Amino acid sequence: MNRSHLQFRLWLWVLPVIALIYPVTINADELHGVYMLRLDDEIGSSTWRYTRQALDEASRLDAELLIVHLNTYGGSVVHADSIRTALLNFPRPTVAFVDNNAASAGALVALACDSVFMRSGASMGAVTVVNGTDGMAMPDKYQSYMRAMMRATAERHGKTISPDGKSEWRRNPLVAEAMVDPRVSVGGLIDSTRVLTFTADEAVKWNYADGKAESVDEIMQQLGYHPASYAIKEYHPTWLDNLIGFLTNPAVQAVLIMLIIGGIYMELHSPGVGFPSAAAIIAAILYFLPLYISGIASSWIILLFVLGIMLIILEVFVVPGFGITGIAGISCVCAAVILGLIEHYTFSLSHMNADAIWSSMVIFLVGLGLAVLAIWYLTSSYGPKWVRRHTELMLTQQVDEGYIGVDMTPAAYIGLDGTAVTDMRPAGKVEINGDVLDAVAIQGFIHAGARVKVRKYENAQIYVAELSMTESIFTA
């Protein structure tokens, strides 16, 4: 075997080893950081918290790319708008991967990303605002706001220059409006009787998707990343994230508001019981603590709530009656609760909008209504007896419920004459119309057999006075 042949055989063994080691060696220090966030549930307070946490961690890790994995049928418009705003302002490229569904609010989130890729068979659209009870479309006021939000999101992607030199929108805003309003028509795509929902092929054709992909790795390849040149870190919510997301759910917030208001009201009417005030304090902690931990509620709002509680305590235990102190305390509590809601939906009181204020007031009024219903039920005859036992000052003591007052039957003897059966010094017995009764002499002693007259009935006792001789003859 000659020398050249031996070298050739050696390279046949060495090259595969180099091929395996070389890419890793070259890219180990040049891995592209990719961060992925899954939004597979209903969009709401939990998914908004997940998004904030994921964006903060992606920034901290200096990730080059953020992938939003979407498979949702939508959810809260308010929280979807918050996620949209956060994605639009994220400084690094964002990519939406529509894995099956991006309906309603999910389509808004996908449109907010810089690039969109859809799995074959996936759909995106149908962004009409509906109510949460029967799924009926909301009035045009809400649809108008949603149309503007979708249009603004599409316009944010800017324009491109076509091969013939014309400037055109990268994402056509009219198409975005057609996802909301069935009255909007787009020539060659949809008429004015249906709400637009894209298939994957249609989205690619109309530039609402940048391509089709069956996996995240396929998206990375289409974006020009070598399989060994990137590392994906996925966000995984903790139990605390899930708990905070649950406590900041609008329905749960309404229940907590009910407990806060109801507990304060019950404590005002039965001070010293303890249970209503304990329930109100625990509900307040569960209401404000998640907002404070999330960095949403300002410290001064919590201090305002504490001030209101202190004023109410002064009203109950120090200041007599109910006046300015109590009214000021209740006003501070209500203001703190409402402002906390507004900050939750706007994340800054300096950026308040009508939609956030409306949502906050609806939740507060629902909580207030639940509190009124709960108070009525607990203090009525339908409520549990152990509650009524501690709030008896709020109720009427009925005879059929076991309450017995002073017997007023002897009051019928007032003005009648009788005879002293025993000596009255001053108490004794008298006979009136054949009835022997206990009685008390109003003045002096009365001997047995003397004629008497019933003068009054007080403190469950008959009071009599001895008749003079003239009165006795006249009466006889």
Q: What are the salient characteristics of this protein?
A:
5-stranded mixed β-barrel, 47% helix, alpha/beta, 8-stranded mixed beta sheet, 17% strand, elongated, 16 helices, 476 residues
Write structural notes for this entry.
There is one protein chain. By secondary structure, the protein is of the alpha/beta class. The chain is 47% helix and 17% strand. The strands form three sheets. Strands 1, 2, 3, 4, 5, 8, 9 and 10 form an eight-stranded mixed beta sheet that branches. Strands 11-12-13-15-14 form a five-stranded mixed barrel. A two-stranded antiparallel sheet has the order 6-7. β12 and β13 form a beta hairpin. α2 runs parallel beside α3, α10 packs across α14 and α12 runs antiparallel to α13.
In short:
This protein has 476 residues and is α/β, with parallel strands linked by helices. The chain is 47% helix and 17% strand.
* Gap from first CA to last CA: 162 Å
Evaluate the radius of gyration.
40 Å
Based on secondary structure, the structural category is alpha/beta
Low-confidence region ranges: 1-29
Number of helices, counting only DSSP H or I runs of 4 residues or more: 16
Q: What global shape is seen?
A: elongated
The percent of residues in helical segments reads 40-55%
Arithmetic mean pLDDT: 81
Largest sheet properties: 8 strands, mixed
**Record field, number of beta strands:** 15
| Proportion of strand residues | 15-25%
